[in-house]
Fold:
Amino acid sequence: MKTRFHVRPRRAMVAMVLGTALAAVGPSVSAAEPAAPRAVHDISRYCSSCWRNARLPADCWGDCTQDVFQRLLERVPTAHWSQVFAAQAAERLEFLRAIDTVKKRVQRDRQRWGRMYEELPDRRGAAEQAQRETRELLQQAIDQTLSRRQQRIMERTCAGWSVAEIADELGLAPARISDEKYKALNKLRVHLGSA
Structure:
């Protein structure tokens, strides 16, 4: 079974290598260097300006530029890349088509996914509010129905203490703590069931 990636592996690999070369070329290309790296650098800078003007997210600029280079590799010989900035050149039309195609694809994807995220309400605030209300209701029930010892036992239990740790702190037998905890839970169940 062929995947889409394997349809044109050589061109995709060339685009990836070209993207890596872009990073290596960087902004310091001198006039003495060959025309091809200079064209790659100029095309890359022009693409970055286009993505900025189109207000595309900065984290996708590199991918968009690589897509443009891949389209150029398919349609324009690398020896003619220096012609993409010539006013009446056919290479310029291919270059502008590549930029426009990539830009529109990214904008469509942003609109599609943006609508999806806008349609989904953020329920985290409601869940946190419900949890806060539940805690307040439980604390109110603890304050109203339990003895001071049972309150301390329930506070320690909610904080993750074991029965043995609570027994050590209060100086009581673990069986007594378990019994008080059981009674406290029953009181809370009755109180909250009637509320």
